[in-house]
Amino acid sequence: MRVFACKGRVASCTAVARVLRILACGGAGAFFALLMFAVSQAEAARRPHYHAHAHYAAVGFSPVLVSESMVIDVETGQVLSQANADAITYPASLTKMMTLYLTFEALNAGRLRLDQYLPVSDVAASRAPTKLGLRPGESIAVQDLILGLVTRSANDAACALAEGLAGSEPAFAEHMTRKARYLGMTNTAYRNASGLPDPDQYTTARDQVQLALALFREFPREYRYFSTREFYFRGKAIHNHNHLLDWYEGADGIKTGYIGASGFNLAASAVRNGHQLIGVIMGGPSAGTRDREMALLLDRGFEEVGVGANMVAHREAPPPTVAEAEQAPPPLSRDKPGVITKAASRLAAHLSPFGKAEAAPLMHERAVPAGEHWSIQLGAFHGETAALKAARTAAGGLAGAKSRPVQIIEPAKADKERLYRARLLNFTPQEAWSACVALHKKKIECSVVPVTGLKIAAR
Residue 280 phi/psi, 5° resolution? Predict the structure, then answer.
C-alpha cells in the first residue's frame, strides 16, 4: 500500500466517490477497487493522519502506476521536474543514505575510523536479506560495512553500523530522524537503519533529493563511495545494485531501494560537462522500468540546463536486476576474511583523501605505470634497527614475502618524535591486501601503500 498525506475529510470522501463510480462498472474491476478501498481504510484507521490508497489505482482492468519523482540542478538547486514529490511513501533502502550520512559525519569528526572494527550482534546478524552474511560475535571493519551498504545494500551491515555508532538501532533511528529535521526533511521519519518494512518509517521524493544533495555537498570525498561498482568480500565479488552506473552516461551514484509497499526506488546523480544533476524516483513497477524512467528524467534535465550528451567511455549494457528485499545472497565463503582486493584499485581511483578519517583510501585516479608496485607499511618505530627488525619479522611470516625489498623511511624534519617507518615493497594491489590481512591475523599492525605513496586502510 502507498500512504499519502490527507487534509481533513475531503480526500476520504473523494475516495468513496471514486470507488462508487468504479463499482458502477461492475465486474472484476469493481471487486478489485472495493478490495483496495477496504485495505486502504484499515490502514488509514490505524494511522489517522494519513490517507492510504493502493499503490496502483484501479481504472477498469488496467492498473495505473502512482509514482513520485524529482530532479534538481545541484549547482543552483533549481527543480527541473517533479511529480507527486511531496506524497508520503516508504524509503526502503534509500534509508541507508541517512545511515551513511551519519557514518560519514562520525568519520570526519574523528569518532570513527575506516579501519576500526565494529562487533556484529545477534540482532544485526539476524536482519533479513539482502545482507553480507555477517555472523554474531565477529567484528567487521567500518570500510567493509560502508561498501556493503553501497553495493549490496546489506541490512546486517546497516544494523552493525547503527549499533556501533549509537549503541542500538532504535537509538540510531532517533538520531536519523533528528538529522532529517536538521536537513529540512520535514516529511521523513526513521525507525531502523536499513529500510526494512516499518509502517512508521516514511519519506517523500523531495526529502530524498534533499538528503542526496546534502551528502554530495557536505561529503564530496566520501560521496564517491556511491560510485563503487563492485568490491570483494570473503572472496566473493559484490556488484552494485545501481545498474545506472553500468550504462548511463555520467552516472556517479547514489542508491537503490525496494520493498513491496514502496515499489522500486532510486536516488541517482549524474554529471555531464561539469554539470551535476540529482534525481529521485519512488514507486517504480520494476527495477528496469525505474532505471529507464530515471535515465529519461535526467536526459530531460540535462537538456533543460543546456547540456548535451557526455563524451564518456562505452559502458556495457545493464545486467539483469533483482529486488533487494526479495532474494537472499548466495552463501558466502567462510574460509577467507572480509577484504577489499581488486576493488581496492577501483575504489581508490574514485576517492580523494578523507579530511579527518584515519587511513582512508587515497589513491588518485591514474594508470599504474609498468614496474611500479604497492607496498605494506608496518608502523612507526623510535629506532631504525627496530623498524628493520619488524620488517624482517613480518616478511618471514608471510609466504612469498621473504624476498621482498625492505624500505626504512627516515623521520621527517617536522617529526618531533623521530619515528622510523618500515615498508615491504613490490606487491601487486591484491597481494598487498592479502598480505596485510594475514599480518592482522598474526596481530601485526599494517597498512597498504599504493604507488602514489599514500596509505590505504587494510584489514
Answer: -135, 135
Residues 6 or more apart whose Cβ sits within 8 Å of residue 166: 172, 175
Distance CA 6, CA 10 (A): 8
Given a contact cutoff of 8 angstroms between Cβ atoms, the answer to whether 127 and 135 are in contact is: no
Q: What's the start-to-end Cα distance of the chain, in Å?
A: 43
Q: Looking at residue 52, what DSSP letter applies? A: E
Cis peptide before 278 (omega within 30 of 0): no
The CA-based diameter of the chain, rounded to the nearest angstrom, is 92
- Calculate the alpha carbon distances from 353 to 220, 222, 440 in Å: 10, 9, 23
Contact 268, 253 (CB under 8 A): yes
Cα(222)–Cα(207) distance, rounded to whole angstroms? 20
377: Cα separation from own chain's centroid: 29
Chain position carrying cell 540529482 = 278
Measure the CA–CA gap between 118 and 134, rounded to whole angstroms: 11
How many other C-beta atoms are found inside a 10 Å radius of the C-beta of residue 312? 12
Q: What is the pTM of this model?
A: 0.61
| Side chain identity, residue 182 | Y
Q: How far apart are CA 260 and CA 401, in angstroms?
A: 51
Cα separation, 1 vs 38, in Å, equals: 12
Query: Cell numbers at residue 139, please?
Result: 567484528
Catalytic residues: 93, 96, 153
pLDDT digits 0-9 by tens, 264-290 = 999 999 999 889 999 999 999 999 999
pLDDT in tens, 47-73: 433 433 334 333 333 333 458 999 999
Hey, CA dihedral for 56, 58, 64, 69, is it positive or negative? Answer: negative
Instruction: Dump the DSSP string for 407-429.
Output: EEEPPPTT-TT--EEEEEEEE-H
* 23 Cα distance to chain centroid: 45
Q: Among candidates 209, 207, 202, which has minimal Cα distance to 49? A: 202
